[in-house]
Amino acid sequence: MERKHERYDRLIERCKALPPTPTAVAHPCDESSLRGAVDAAKAGLIAPILVGPAARIRDIAAKAGLDIAGYPIVDAEFSQESAEKAVAEVRAGRAEALMKGSLHTDELMSAVVRRDTGLRTGRRLSHCFVMDVPGHPDPLMITDAAVNIAPTLKDKIDIVQNAIDLARDLGASEVRVAILSAMETVNPDVPSTVEAAALCKMAERKQITGAVLDGPLALDNAINPEAAKIKKIDSPVAGRANVLVVPDLEAGNMLAKSLTFLAGADAAGIVLGARVPIILTSRADTLIARLASCAVAALVAKARLERSGKAIGG
Q1: Is the pTM value of this prediction over 0.90?
Q2: Spatial distance between the Cα atoms of 184 and 112, rounded to a whole number of angstroms
Q3: Which of 34, 49, 58 shows the shortest CA–CA distance to 87?
Q4: Around 67, how many Cα atoms within 13 Å sit in the side-chain half-sphere?
Q5: How far apart (Å, rounded) are the C-alpha atoms in residues 97 and 61?
Q6: 3-state secondary structure of 18
Q7: Rounded distance, CA 8 to CA 178, Å?
Q8: Which residues partner with 98 through β-bridges?
Q9: What φ, ψ does residue 74 adopt, rounded to 5°?
Q10: pLDDT tens, 44-93?
Q11: Distances (CA, A) of 175 to 17, 74, 164, 211, 300
Q12: Per-residue pLDDT tens digits for 235-249
């Protein structure tokens, strides 16, 4: 029987040959977020730059028994300033990833998307869970379950391409994308089925590249070969998808949390589409999920820098 977390262990193992990724940690002002950064640093995944109220961070570290003497601290008085200064560390080239601390996600993301001082690119930002599901042969990616509330078809083009690029950066030899809905037939009364068909046609016309797409697909016939066989769905994706694109944030959030709390899965979370990968962790995350999120970000940062001809930390 496969050992639990073996997929995450493989991701983390791949990072051992890499130098730690310089990472701006925005407002690590509770024990959970500060410990997450320290644990990731001890594992060799990140080189944290702690951004927040310096005295408070040192006090939290002392009370929690965390040694942060070797990590630079950028002083910021409050959470919004922490987010802005963490983003500034990236813009200055001192950080190649961004990590959420104890501030609200929307505070961090508002600094990221600011037009003049943020980290925008030509892509729409989207969130992707890389899930380690017991009994499932491969890591299962779910997008978008945290950033885009009710994405349009135009938004979904970037959401899908971001996920494909992530899967490639993580070493997937074949990316099989299922565009999920409640059914596997196109129904004009169900907009997600029409959008799924349009996305698949876009992939055929090379408007979306790097993967094979199919949809609409219901969840069962997207990930279960027997269900796909019963429904007589013949495609390279049906029954063996490794990327699941959900209709909206509510569906994605419920799917990811169902896998976590009912199937014992862990979820590594990352935001894509900005200049650098953004690590979003939750206080409910396990240690292995936190480390896996940092490993995913490190591999994405490595791939991004390779494409630009640079080296991590260079």
Answers
A1: yes
A2: 37
A3: 49
A4: 3
A5: 22
A6: coil
A7: 22
A8: 24, 278
A9: -100, 115
A10: 999 999 999 999 999 999 999 999 999 999 999 999 999 999 999 999 99
A11: 25, 40, 7, 5, 16
A12: 999 999 999 999 999
Q: Which of 283, 232, 265, 235 is nearest to 130 (CA)?
A: 265
Angle at 258 between CA 208 and CA 103, to 5 degrees: 80
> What's the angle, vertex CA 66, arms to CA 8 and CA 261, rounded to 5?
35
Amino acid at 254: M
Output the CA torsion 20→22→25→26 (10° steps). -160
- In single-letter form, the type of residue at position 143 comes to T
Q: Where are the alpha helices (DSSP H) in the chain?
A: 6-14, 31-42, 54-64, 79-91, 105-112, 153-169, 191-204, 219-223, 225-230, 249-263, 287-308
Structure tokens at 239: 């029954």
**CA pair distance 206, 190, nearest whole angstrom:** 25
SS3 of 152-167: the string is CHHHHHHHHHHHHHHH
CB 179 within 8 A of CB 222: no
Options 3.30.450.70, 3.40.50.960, 3.40.718.10, 3.40.50.720; CATH of 121-273? 3.40.718.10
Q: What is each CA distance from 8 to 14, 130, 203, in whole angstroms?
A: 10, 9, 29
